[in-house]
Amino acid sequence: MKTQQPPAIELLNSIFGYENFRGQQQTIIDHLVDGQDALVIMPTGSGKSLCFQIPSLIREGVGIVISPLIALMQDQVSALLQLGIKAAFLNSSLTFEEILRTEQQLIAGEIDLLYIAPERLSNERTLNILCRINIALFAIDEAHCVSQWGHDFRADYLKLSLLHERFPKTPRIALTATADERTRQEIRFRLGLEQARMFLSGFDRPNIRYRIVQKQNARQQLLDFIETEHDGDAGIVYCLSRKKVDDTAQWLNDRGIKALPYHAGMDNVHRQQHQHRFLMEDGLVMVATIAFGMGIDKPNVRFVAHLDLPKSIEGYYQETGRAGRDGSPANAWMAYGLQDVVTLRRMLAESNANEVQKRIEYNRLDAMLALCEQIHCRRQALLGYFGDTLEQPCGNCDTCLEPVETWDATLAAQQALSCIHRTGQRVSA
Ligand code: ADP
Ligand code: ZN
After folding, report:
1. Half-sphere exposure of residue 335, counting CA atoms within 13 Å on the CB side?
2. Ligand 1 atom 27: the closest Cα is on which residue?
3. Is the Cβ atom of 311 under 6 angstroms away from ligand 1?
4. Which CATH superfamily is 208-401 part of?
5. What is the pLDDT of residue 293?
6. In what helix (H) or strand (E) does residue 34 lie, and over which residues does it extend?
7. What mean pLDDT, rounded, does the chain reach?
8. Is the pLDDT of residue 273 over 70?
9. Does ligand 1 have an atom closer than 6 angstroms to the CB of 337?
10. Exposed (0-12), middle (13-18) or buried (19+): which is 314, by Cβ within 10 Å?
């Protein structure tokens, strides 16, 4: 330990200016300071960064943070510098002189936190430097990038297994917000983190009320929902296609709801404008494709509505998660019909993904469908999907508030099957 360093909580107060740790932050920090490996799975915005920043300050040497996104890396480093932390980054945006300067500071022990792109870390030049200095820990951010079946696969992440081989004594922490079991296993396996303690938590957003209704006339249902529950509130409406985004925004405006479209087909200037207005003005409804939302931090979004089924529970969770960041009550509302499933399946069948990938996507879609058809607490099912458990039904989702009527369908099912049999299986659905 750096002898002069105070304990974690004092750093949290004095440097970061926060009163208390959130969730499992303290436990994770202690675990790393103690020299152990960790796999941290927590949703976006839950405070994963402190879990490696504070131990990097406490332990002797520099904390090396591997991050795939250059823009994010720069943001994080400027934020740290503002707090007075000696941070730097190494990526392809720097000139050779800048790289040299950072390397010299590294060797001189003048840096506490170094952010680095994966391809730069695995080159021999960098590794040689790393071998000569004290390293507090390795943090592998966005660790799901190591998964070949995920959406963000980065070949350079595969090389990170060398950290384990070259620096067996240095603690490593892998972090991600993607939690499906398969990805988790792959992270452990590919990064040599089989023995790492897993910290998984905080997927619950108790102030969000989840509701999934049968689609009849979806637009009209949406209008009723907004008029009765969200008059004058800011909200996001997600649609699958650009055309539907444009049509829906227009339709809402015609009915007195201030709405703006947002999708990747619009020119940059208009997109920026709409995003800016959504952030600055009160009570605007953004009608958008999933292109909208990354990095949007508007705390008082009161509802997120889906007019089309998301392709996966991960997508649904991420999109609905943009509601109620301020902690006040918010609604996640979706109109869904079986036609949505047919459409998504067709799109998948026609996509040029390979067979293995398609199978994974079908499975994701099936899980999403199961959430829609859920007759028990929707939140329990949602959290269960992420491996997070909720002991009791939540009392704040549609199935809790208005339990679904169920009936014993054994006889009806037998009759239907016998009917299928007698028609010689010629009639579908
Ligand atoms: P993640 O990496 O999980 O998406 P971040 O580490 O970026 O999340 O943290 C999200 C926000 O929460 C940041 O603004 C961060 O400063 C803040 N935050 C993190 N930990 C705490 C805490 N213990 N108390 C208050 N705010 C915190
Ligand atoms: Zn519930």
Report:
1. 16
2. 47
3. no
4. P-loop containing nucleotide triphosphate hydrolases (3.40.50.300)
5. 80
6. none
7. 91
8. yes
9. no
10. buried
Taking alpha carbons only, the member of 139, 96, 92, 89 closest to residue 114 is: 89
> Residue 395 Cα, ligand 2 centroid: separation in angstroms?
5
Q: How much is the pLDDT for 148?
A: 80
- Residue 275 CA to residue 273 CA, distance in Å, equals 5
Residues in the chain, overall count:
429
pTM: 0.74
pLDDT of residue 1: 46
Instruction: For ligand 1, say whether the CB of 45 is within 6 Å of any of its atoms.
Output: yes
Nearest residue (CA) to ligand 1, atom 18: 47
Average pLDDT over residues 119-140: 94
> φ and ψ at 333, to 5 degrees?
-120, 135
Dump the DSSP string for 289-339: -TTS-TT---TT--EEEESS--SSHHHHHHHHTTS-TTSS-EEEEEEE-HH
Say if ligand 1 is within 6 A of residue 13 CB.
no
Please tell me if the CB atom of residue 72 comes closer than 6 angstroms to any atom of ligand 1: no
Output the CA–CA distances (angstroms, integers) from residue 255 to 174, 248, 303, 337, in the order listed: 49, 11, 18, 24
Q: Which ligand is nearest to the CA of 383?
A: 2
**In a mutational test of the pocket of ligand 1, which residue from 49, 69, 83 has the highest number of ligand atoms less than 8 Å from its CB?**
49
Instruction: Label residue 424 by pLDDT band (50, 70, 90).
Output: confident
CATH architecture assignment, domain 8-200? 3-Layer(aba) Sandwich (3.40)
Residue nearest to atom 16 of ligand 1 (CA): 47
Check residue 428 and give its pLDDT: 55
CATH fold match for the domains 8-200 and 208-401: yes
Of the candidates 137, 163, 159, the one whose C-alpha atom is nearest the C-alpha of residue 38 is: 137
Among 121, 9, 125, residue whose Cα is nearest residue 65: 121
Domain limits, the chain: 8-200, 208-401
